[in-house]
Amino acid sequence: MSDTPETDAEAITPSGFEDDDVSAEFARKLERERDEAREKIKRQTDRIRYLEGATNYAKGTPLSIALKERDEAREHLEHVKEYGTEEINASVDLRQKLAQALVELDNMQDQRDLAMKVISRLERERDEARDELSKILKNE
Q: DSSP letters along the chain, please?
């Protein structure tokens, strides 16, 4: 079977290529080039479809992903510029209140420790006073 069936069919017809300005060999060459171009286009189309599928699977091309990330970063920066000062000030205030609460807690623990020492001393003095009272009562 020939790789130029259209040209071969035309060359066999009664009019043939003798009356035309194009030779059969040149027509065959053009038909081959056309078929090769069609095949190349088909392969490129298949490759494009494959790449589109891969791109959709990856949620975009590297460039489109980078552009999306850039836009998100810009939006975030605008948000920070607009609301960031308030949020930062609120965070600083909260941190200062927390630090103050920790200092107060340390002070309360120190006071508790001091109170426990005083209680221990008073308990000891009470026990000593009881012992002395007990001795006095026994001697009477």
A: --S-HHHHHHHHSSSTTTSSSS-HHHHHHHHHHHHHHHHHHHHHHHHHHHHHHHHHHTTS-HHHHHHHHHHHHHHHHHHHHHHHHHHHHHHHHHHHHHHHHHHHHHHHHHHHHHHHHHHHHHHHHHHHHHHHHHHHHHH-
